[in-house]
Design goal:
The chain is an alpha+beta fold. The protein has two domains: about 1-25 and about 130-195, no CATH class; about 30-130, D-Maltodextrin-Binding Protein, domain 2 (3-Layer(aba) Sandwich), CATH 3.40.190. It has seven helices and nine strands. It has helices at about 5-15, 60-70, 85-95, 105-115, 145-155, 155-165, 190-195; strands spanning about 1-5, 20-25, 30-35, 50-55, 80-85, 100-105, 120-130, 135, 180. A five-stranded mixed β-sheet has the order 5-4-6-3-7, with helices on both faces. Strands 1-8-2-9 form a four-stranded antiparallel β-sheet. Strand 4, helix 2 and strand 5 (about 80-85) form a beta-alpha-beta unit. Helix 2 (about 60-70) packs across helix 7. The longest helix is centred in the N-terminal third of the chain and has 13 residues, at about 60-70. The radius of gyration is 18 Å and the shape is globular. The protein starts with a strand and ends in a 12-residue tail after the last helix. It is found in: Periplasm. It comes from Polymorphum gilvum (strain LMG 25793 / CGMCC 1.9160 / SL003B-26A1). Belongs to the bacterial solute-binding protein SsuA/TauA family. This is Phosphate-binding protein of phosphonate ABC transporter.
């Protein structure tokens, strides 16, 4: 099955699934956005303010932005009030001055700028590039079968990517590559994100 970074951490904990191949998403990173002409100029200005996150448990809309702020010294729930609010509602709240900033990914930022061409937004925090989406298999699947699947992604990667990009929902992979050198340790950064939002075990999906 194909899964995102946040989901993989839970799936690995519950099933000990093995990684087959990574599906790279270019420009896949989290950021914290505010109004360019507003009072928030730096991350430090968010102390005591409300910052909203998108879909609960989302790598790039919730976990990633919270981690980006943590990397810059702000603790969720202590230094700022983090709330889960749908992105469109959050943008309207930001424009009204009801909240200080919004956590989102790069693609969402592009769409918001298109939707609100008369509003100037700015990014005050950007996280590191997030780990790849991954194709996983059950832990006891025959190693030869796993190896054969990996070889197909290596030798027919361009053809497979072209087929993937025929769907509108998969345009996030445009310009990406299939990667076979992926380790479970690459997702320790995601595990640190869970801890940042107060989740110390990975036995269930956030919000369940």
């Amino acid at each position: 099955m194909l899964t995102g970074p946040a989901e993989y951490v839970v799936i690995k904990q519950l099933t000990d699934a093995q990684i087959v191949v990574g599906w790279q998403r270019p420009d896949y990173f989290a950021q914290v956005v505010t109004l360019a002409d507003g009072k928030i100029k730096t991350v430090e200005d968010l102390r005591g303010k409300i910052v909203t996150f998108g879909s609960v448990g989302s790598t790039s809309q919730h976990l990633g932005p919270a981690q980006a702020l943590a990397d810059l010294g702000l603790t969720l729930g202590t230094d700022y009030d983090g709330q889960i609010v749908s992105r469109n509602t959050a943008v309207e709240a930001l424009i009204r001055g009801d909240i200080a900033a919004i956590g989102m990914n790069f693609t969402h930022m592009q769409k918001i700028r298109e939707t609100y061409p008369d509003v100037a937004f700015t990014v005050i925090a950007r996280g590191r590039d997030l780990p790849n989406d991954i194709l996983v298999a059950k832990r006891n699947l025959d190693p030869e079968i796993v190896d054969q699947i990996r070889k197909v992604f290596v030798t027919r990667g361009a053809d497979l990517m072209a087929a993937v990009l025929k769907g509108d929902d998969n345009q996030k992979f445009k310009g990406g590559h299939f990667l076979t050198e992926i380790d479970d340790s690459d997702y320790d950064y995601v595990r640190s994100m869970y801890r940042t939002i107060g989740v110390d075990t990975f036995g269930q999906f956030v919000g369940d």
